[in-house]
Write a structure and sequence with these properties.
Layout lengths: L6 E6 L6 E6 L5 H13 L18 H5 L3 E5 L2 E8 L2 E5 L4 E2 L1 E2 L4 E3 L6 E6 L5 E6 L4 E4 L2
Antiparallel strand pairs: 1-2, 3-4, 3-11, 4-5, 5-6, 7-8, 8-9, 9-10, 10-11
Length: 139
């Protein structure tokens, strides 16, 4: 039986005996990854999680405005909105965008970096993930 807003996941190793079961009353799959990573650091799991420290920047209002709009995220409609002077990706899991440059960003819920693409006229036409997959801006 599948319950709404509930996720359970297990991760473990036959080689070293490390493992954990995570049960949450949230539909946010990103929280399990955060818990796995925190457990691996606390218990010293070798080669499981290597955190990267990133310096974030604040964008001007003008810079934020050009990213607002609707996008097609791997065939599904999503949007980027501005709330309390921050940009958010509104998808099945709502995620804050953290910028490391004027065009580069990441989300805590995803273990991948993204880069906005801009045409010759300075118009944002989408963004690409670190694996080269393109997300198109539709409005």
């Amino acid at each position: 039986m599948v319950l709404p807003d509930f996720i359970d996941e297990y991760i473990g190793s036959f080689e070293n005996g490390n493992g954990v079961v995570v049960m949450t009353n949230s539909a946010n799959p990103g929280i399990s990854r955060e818990i796995f990573n925190s457990v691996s650091i606390a218990y010293g799991w070798k080669d499981f999680y290597q955190p990267s420290l990133k310096k974030t920047i604040s964008l001007t209002n003008a810079a934020m405005e050009k990213y607002l709009g609707s996008y097609m995220w791997y065939g599904k409609p999503v949007s980027i909105t501005k709330e309390q002077n921050e940009l958010w990706l509104n998808a099945p899991v709502k995620s804050k965008l953290y910028f490391t440059s004027e065009v580069d960003f990441y989300m805590n819920e995803k273990a991948v970096d993204y880069k906005f693409s801009v045409d010759a006229n300075g118009i944002v036409n989408g963004f690409t993930d670190a694996n080269g997959r393109k997300v198109e801006k539709v409005i």
